[in-house]
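testing teh design pipeline on a random one, pls ignore if ur not involved
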């Protein structure tokens, strides 16, 4: 594709845009959001009619640990957008130390395989303080994120405690134990979102989806990140009926996950690790699903015909978010296809 033309398309697409809502997990979602923010900065240099970006964030990985509420996906996004995340390690705070974790281990509390960094603990203590004083997670998140100039509003998908449990042979365990302690090596039979049936979308979630011009399903884990968000009663329906166009970005490139172990989650729900299979899993909105358009990697362009046959408008573009520039370009591609 002609580069100048693509940029012009991106420019035109963004100028008319006002509200963008992104359904997001942790690392993949954070990278996409950082790229989207950059794309909007580049295409709106005058700062006129700024686009508002809202991220509806998965909370299924959250848990209470050592008396503190941990929200890994919210924090991954916050640290990434604040420029405070450890790029080398891929998670947590830049310049982190682990003195407190050493003490917790010495006392024998917490999970020895789940290190809470000292700076990170500041966030968890603050969140737990707000929750204990009676504030919902969404308000706690608003207060915590107000410290940084994120350029994106973060809303937890729900204020209620919904925790993903992984069913393995002989029992079940919290998602974090399966993922971090066992590195997703125990065969998962299914995923159960404890508390999801009675959970309500957090204030602002449904509005953010209904009032958006574009809804993006981030390149996040389709099962435990996006699947958990969509499982909260009311959210899937809002995505299905919004007048926004809904575009998804494949977390799968060339039959493999890019970072992490999401393939272990997909196989547990019987979905093949391919961009096409994940798109079919989400389904075309015209046929009762949740997406109108889908971005796949250039290396997967052989799947374009099958996607069209499934009623999904698709485009093959570079999907690797290697740096800010490639992430921004991908965000621009997502907006462009949403508006096509
Ligand atoms: P988690 O909550 O930290 O596991 O992160 P997410 O749920 O947001 O995202 C995990 C997914 O992001 C994995 O399935 C990866 O394949 C995907 N992912 C990570 N980096 C990239 C990237 O550069 N490009 C694309 N397309 N997907 C990515
Ligand atoms: Ca996560």
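output:
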């Amino acid at each position: 594709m002609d580069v100048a033309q693509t940029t012009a398309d991106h420019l035109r697409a963004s100028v008319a845009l006002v509200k963008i809502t992104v359904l997001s997990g942790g690392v993949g979602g954070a990278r996409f959001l950082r790229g989207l923010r950059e794309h909007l900065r580049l295409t709106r240099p005058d700062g006129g009619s700024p686009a508002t970006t809202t991220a509806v964030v998965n909370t299924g990985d959250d848990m209470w640990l050592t008396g503190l509420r941990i929200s890994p996906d919210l924090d991954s996004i916050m640290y990434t957008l604040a420029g405070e995340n450890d790029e080398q390690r891929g998670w947590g705070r830049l310049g982190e130390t682990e003195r407190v974790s050493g003490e917790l281990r010495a006392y024998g509390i917490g999970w020895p395989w789940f290190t809470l960094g000292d700076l990170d603990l500041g966030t968890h203590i603050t969140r737990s303080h707000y929750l204990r004083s009676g504030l919902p997670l969404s308000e706690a998140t608003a207060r915590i994120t107000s410290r940084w100039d994120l350029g994106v509003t973060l809303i937890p998908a729900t204020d209620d405690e919904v925790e993903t449990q992984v069913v393995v042979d002989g029992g079940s365990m919290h998602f974090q134990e399966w993922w971090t302690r066992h590195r997703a090596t125990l065969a998962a039979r299914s995923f159960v979102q404890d508390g999801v049936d009675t959970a309500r979308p957090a204030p602002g979630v449904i509005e953010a989806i209904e009032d958006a011009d574009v809804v993006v399903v981030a390149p996040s884990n389709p099962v435990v990140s996006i699947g958990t968000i969509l499982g909260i009663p009311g959210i899937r329906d809002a995505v299905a009926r919004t007048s926004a166009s809904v575009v998804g970005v494949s977390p799968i490139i060339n039959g493999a996950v890019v970072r992490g172990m999401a393939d272990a989650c997909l196989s547990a729900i019987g979905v093949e690790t391919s961009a096409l299979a994940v798109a079919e899993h989400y389904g075309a909105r015209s046929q009762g699903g949740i997406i109108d358009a889908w971005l796949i990697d250039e290396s997967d362009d052989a799947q374009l015909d099958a996607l069209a046959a499934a009623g999904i408008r698709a485009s093959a573009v570079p999907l690797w978010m290697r740096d800010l520039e490639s992430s921004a370009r991908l965000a621009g591609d997502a907006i462009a296809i949403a508006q096509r």
